[in-house]
Amino acid sequence: MAKEIERKFLVTGPEWRSLVEAEIRIRQFYLASNHGRSVRLRISDGKAATLTLKFGSRGRERDEFEYAVPLAEAEEMQDFAIGRVIEKTRHHVSHRGRLYEVDVFGGDLSGLIIAELETPEDVPAAELPAWIGQEVTGDPRYYNASLALSDAPEAAA
Fold first, then answer.
1. How far apart are CA 26 and CA 134, in angstroms?
2. CA-CA distance, 81 to 38, in Å (whole number)?
3. How many CB atoms lie within 10 A of CB 4?
4. Quick check: is 67 catalytic?
5. Percentage of residues in the chain with pLDDT exceeding 90?
6. Are 65 and 2 in contact (CB under 8 A)?
7. pLDDT confidence tier of residue 107, bands split at 50, 70 and 90
8. CA distances (Å), 73 to each of 43, 48, 77, 111, 157, in order?
9. pLDDT-based confidence at residue 53 (cuts at 50, 70, 90)
10. How far is the C-alpha of 111 from the C-alpha of 107, rounded, in Å?
């Protein structure tokens, strides 16, 4: 079991684009979701699939279990998705020795850009990149499960 300690931020500026080190095209969907737990399948670059189980209350820290799934089986399971299938491109961007994963959403969520920072340390605001905007870590509207199962938040409008 791994602990996921993550902060989420809305992205307000384009400066991060020139700093991209890698990108991954992601298609993900949920097979089950209930308060404090979810079952997700993620297909990365059309080549690999991962089943993720997450447990815990909404916030910075949750328990997470991940397992590789044969790609063909993951593709079949998409027929059982609940809510919308999320399409996004994840960009890896380093700033001050920390990796930010900047997700640019497509489809119904076009216009939404969220940066995630997985770190157990409390990074002071002065050390965050200038292109980082409002922190939405505790806001359930910006959790991937909510993005799949609820109306799009205003930032995607």
1. 24
2. 12
3. 15
4. no
5. 71
6. yes
7. very high
8. 11, 11, 6, 31, 33
9. very high
10. 9
Choosing from 30, 100, 142, 143, which is the catalytic residue?
30
pLDDT band at 115 (very low <50, low <70, confident <90, very high): very high
CB 81, CB 73: distance < 8 Å: no
The two structure tokens encoding residue 145: 């499960």
Separation CA 46–CA 42 (nearest Å): 10
> How buried is residue 101: exposed, middle or buried, by Cβ count under 10 Å (0-12/13-18/19+)?
middle
Residue 29, Cβ density class (10 Å: 0-12 exposed, 13-18 middle, ≥19 buried):
buried
pTM over 0.85? The answer is yes
Q: Are 27 and 84 in contact (CB under 8 A)?
A: no
Q: What is the DSSP string of the chain?
A: -EEEEEEEEEE--SGGGGGEEEEEEEEEEEEEEETTEEEEEEEETTTEEEEEEEES-SSSEEEEEEEEE-HHHHHHHGGG-EEEEEEEEEEEEEETTEEEEEEEE-GGGTT-EEEEEE-SS---GGGS-TTEEEE-TT-GGGSHHHHHHSPPPGGG-
